[in-house]
Amino acid sequence: LRKDELHAHPRGHAGDRGRAMLAGLRYVWQRPDLMAIMAMLFLIATFGLNFPIFIGTMAVSVFHADARGYSLLSSTMAVGSVTGALLAAGRERTRFSALVVGAGVFGVGCTLAAIAPGYLWFAAALALTGVAALTFTNASNSLMQLATEPAMRGRVMALRVGVALGTTPIGAPIVGWVADHAGPRWALGVAAASGFAALAVGLRYLARARRRGPAA
After folding, report:
1. Can you state the angle between helices 184-212 and 96-114, rounded to 10 degrees?
2. CA 96, 99, 104, 82: dihedral to nearest 10 degrees?
3. Which of 1, 16, 70, 153 could make an S-S bridge to 59, C-beta 3.0–4.6 Å?
4. C-alpha to C-alpha distance for 151 and 33, rounded to whole angstroms
5. What would the pLDDT profile of 32-54 be if each residue is shown by its tens digit?
6. Which residues contact 95 (CB under 8 A, 6 or more apart)?
């Protein structure tokens, strides 16, 4: 490491862990951009990022696929995710609009997957959804890191991880119940609704940001 190129920032001193967490929550609460990102992430992470349920139930119940068919669908989803990662790496700067586009395309992808008339159509929709999901999660991660003051970055990112990983186990039983009682296509409809709801949150924030000044 070239130490002369490092820029040290002072650490925040909030006392014990409980007070540090409260300080992080207050910081996010006072930032409309971070609140919008967290709300969008909560919606999609809770009800949308449950792909093992979606792929498994659609493969078995709708398309009557075997283990090879299921693994091919999972691989197609992975191809979309890798594509999304490459697209993210090619961006010179991550903007809030990328987050909004990711949420919208996620909703469209889940909708197409829900109404897919055949196995190949479903696989293509999964690839699109994989691109959108990676775009959304990567943009949320980048935006929150870049927009947060260095002294608060660790606490804010801890909150983000808590929302991103802690809400999926809450939403999974709900989505699974919908798939079991109404069918897997309706479960995908729930995921699509989460994407469109996140899109609405993002567009609302952008509209308010434009009224205040230059857009994010």
Report:
1. 160
2. 150
3. 70
4. 18
5. 999 999 999 999 999 999 999 99
6. 216
